[in-house]
Amino acid sequence: MTKNVRVRFAPSPTGPLHIGGVRTALFNYLFAKKYNGTFILRIEDTDQNRYVPGAEKYIIDALNWCNIPFDEGPGKNETFGPYRQSERKHLYKAYAEELIASGNAYYAFDTAESLDSHRKDHESQGKTFIYNWHNRLKLNNSLSLSEATVKSKLDAGDDYVIRFKSPQDEVLHLKDIIRGDIKIDTNILDDKVLFKSDGMPTYHLANIVDDHLMEISHVIRGEEWLPSLALHQQLYTAFGWEAPQFAHLPLILKPTGKGKLSKRDGDKLGFPVFPLQWQDPKTQDISRGYREDGYFADAMINFLAFLGWNPGTEQEIFSLDELIGAFDLSRVNKSGARFDPDKIKWFNHHYMQEQSNETLAEAFKAEQPALANIDINYIALAVGLIKERANFVSDLWNLSHYFFQAPITYDEKAAKKAFKEETPKLLSELVTTINSINDNDYSAEQLQSTIKGWITSNEIGFGKVMMPLRLALVGALQGPDVFDIMYLIGKTETIKRIETMMHQLQ
Question: pLDDT tier at 1 (50, 70, 90 boundaries)?
Fold first, then answer.
């Protein structure tokens, strides 16, 4: 890359950041870091009617939790600031008027009622109303009115918008890094509004002006903006500016593969579509977040990277640094990427195993009141024995509760299977065998050697001893190695649990 790479993520603060937005931010971040570039956050809040308090903070918190923080943006390295479009609105009108002066835009005084009337008239004839070359000279604008009339309307303070003058009978040749060459017949384009009657620019004008002034080199955004590419390219040409390179990312699809992923899909199928929990400031409704549901940020980032991109190898587990090294826009797919809730759990399971026992123990203790007075080192030992069966920290209690609390009840089916007529006698002999082990020699290895030796020398079936032993310790026929459990809970607690079960079940 000969040009400095500067990319931007430009969300609107209209609510929580959707998982699709996180994927867009991630791809921008990876691209920037691969080429030692700059990742910029710009808040596109020109539509003040849809502004939601707290949304901007949520966006920043989400990026930070995902470990993809912006390099430049609100409150941070504001070299090209301000980075909120509402604080830049004084810039846009001059650029809109520059387009009028060059003949690339015009004032339009049409009322909403007159435009609605035109639409209905076209519909009655089976046509679609498009404000463009076909009819703009018949409408109420500075192309059809005299200069004197236009001046009088402006002087009188009449409401107006500024529209782009889309050319007639031309073919636009557009380039997209992901989709290749695109041809557009300008006759099908409408004359988009660039500047609104409320004194604010539309997304199209503000977006282009800001990208130019902030020296954006590459625009990496979602597929939903592909229809805007023709106008944006024309705006760059009209201003005489060099356009950035464009790359439009594929949609993230529902788990069924049909249609764009929405919050409703998450609610229906039981998974979040937001990185962090969100509470609607108006309704107080709470939407689930991946962080609060127990996902690791690394797992979510690894998962999102594969939604629309592949490295061209069989490797699936990538650290963030590895993703930066491997990422290439040429390997981003054109077709939509299906969201798979089970796959992100698979990633989370992997990153769960990567955590140290001590780290998981701290998180486990923090969320489980029953562990408040338990030594953290003991919790870490228990976690080490069962974490391979867990996808989330929240799974740990169900998998390990018996390390901290003796069984109160016993699984009914397991009891019928494990507890037979001869079981009490065998368990009594087992207690004697356990007691024969010197306290200084009490270990999982010594327990295994001694108990298996006793079973073998007395020609007892292993299942006749090991099943009721596990039931006594756990309350069910599940859990890690029995001898590890016996060692961790200790000799006294082991014998107590065996005797308690014998008393309750015989």
Answer: low
Q: Which two tokens stand for residue 347?
A: 């990633």
For residue 357, count CB atoms less than 10 angstroms from its CB and return exposed for 0-12, middle for 13-18, buried for 19 or more: middle
- DSSP bridge partners of 426: none
Binding site for ATP: what residues are annotated? 263
Q: Rounded to whole angstroms, what are the CA distances from 281 to 95, 340, 389? A: 36, 30, 38
> What does the pLDDT average to over 290-307?
97
Spatial separation of the C-alpha atoms in residues 233 and 244, rounded to whole Å: 9
CB 351 within 8 A of CB 266: no
CB 62 within 8 Å of CB 41: no
Instruction: Find, among 380, 405, 489, the residue nearest to 444 by Cα.
Output: 489
Summarised one tens digit per residue, pLDDT across range 154-173 is 999 999 999 999 999 999 99
Beta bridge partners, 108, equal 141, 161
Backbone φ and ψ for 375, nearest 5 degrees, come out as -60, 135
Q: Average pLDDT of 29-40?
A: 98
**Per-residue pLDDT at 47:** 78
Give 262's Cβ-side CA count (13 Å radius). 6
DSSP string, 63-110: HHHTT---SBBTTB--TT---BGGGSHHHHHHHHHHHHHTTSEEEE--
pLDDT at 286: 94
Strands 286-287 and 218-222: unpaired
d(CA 74, CA 267) in angstroms, rounded, equals: 32
Quick one: how far is CA 450 from the chain centroid? 52
Q: Which pLDDT tens digit goes with each residue over 206-251?
A: 999 999 999 999 999 999 999 999 999 999 999 999 999 999 999 9
Quote the CA–CA distance of 421 and 401 in Å, as a whole number. 29
Give the H or E element holding residue 186. Answer: none
Cα–Cα distance, 504 to 409 (Å, whole number): 9
Annotated binding site: 263
Q: Tokens 């993520």, residue?
A: 9
Q: Tell me the sheet residues that pair with 252.
A: 337
Question: Is the Cβ–Cβ distance between 217 and 31 less than 8 Å?
Answer: no
Among residues 506, 431, 440, 442, the alpha carbon closest in space to that of 473 is found at: 431
Instruction: Look at residue 90 in the predicted model and tell me its pLDDT.
Output: 87
Q: What is the mean pLDDT of the chain?
A: 95
276-292: buried (b, 16+ CB within 10 Å) or exposed (e) per residue?
Answer: bbbeeeeeeeebbbbbe
Active-site residue set: 263
DSSP H/E element including 339: none
For the cut 60, the answer to whether the pLDDT of residue 429 exceeds it is yes
Tokens describing residue 384: 């080490």
